[in-house]
Amino acid sequence: MMHTVQFGETINKVAFQYSIRPFDILLFNREIFSEQQYIYPGMKLYIQNGTFRQDQMDWLGLTEFNQHDLEGMLLRLQQNGVEKDVIGYSVMNKQIYAFKIGTGKKKVFYSGGWHANEWITSKLLAYFIYELSEKQKDQQRWHGYSVEQLLRDSTLYVVPIVNPDGIELVQQGIYKEHPHFRQVLEINKGMRSFDHWSSNIRGVDLNHQWPAGWAKEANESPKVPWPRHYSGQKPLTEPEAKAIYNYTNQHQFDYVLSFHSQGQVIYWGYNHLEPEVSAEMVSRLSYVSSYLPIKTAESDGGYKDWFIQHYRKPGFTIEVGVGVNPLSPDHFSEVWSNNCLLCLEALIL
Ligand SMILES: [Zn+2]
Asked: Where is the LysM domain (predicted)?
């Protein structure tokens, strides 16, 4: 049969949908010469002997994750009682989704997918909130935690994908019909590979945009739009960062965890402004994840920096996984096993 490539698809994803190997796509499509090659919307692929998969959840770590996968989970999240909110729109007008579960007084916020080539954090958070809602529905314990109790004490807010446009760029590359085709190629100096891209689609780093030592960080970073580390012309120019800014101010979270990859470390301080309790909290996060606590990253302008400075409340950056970004899909099992416990423990810090 013929498959027409959709927005956000990769070779791994098409193979997964039809329960075949990525290599089978290479075998029957001569223009595809590598499993890592980008495939563009509208492209036709010949699929030999595929059976369409009903359940699109990928626990085996075979595929990438992006906005389309998250949208594919919306119905089941809703059926499990998870509240959905659209807190803003990306440069390319994609929804920035926030989810809420629980009724407790303590308000906790997890965010991921800030950096385009760190999409594995988005999959972690989307799967986590889904599993949490499954366990709640069935009144199960999860790794010894009473989910019912957790969600009576705490309310969890999650934005799995802060940077949907960038994530799609890293997974699908650029093609003529892409609305930012020329601009992206210019920023990328004509290169067609985007593995190193962490910015949003306009070449602004969404975790360099925050009014906490912004000028200092901007001064030491690229001065024009760049695949990574460009801070923008001033703080919070980008709609994705602005959406998180408004959402954070609106909800007054007790503490926040922002997820990045990679390094298996947890940053927890900023300019000695973090409250004393942060040290104890990070030691618990470290214990359950086996990730190393590090007080400061010697950098400024990040979301958790701003949160600590502005609210004088605990903020953490979790660097999941180890390897070179983007981590390949099969890193998911390590990321999941270490951070599933961390995400549970973090609900009751
Ligand atoms: Zn990052």
From this structure: 1-47
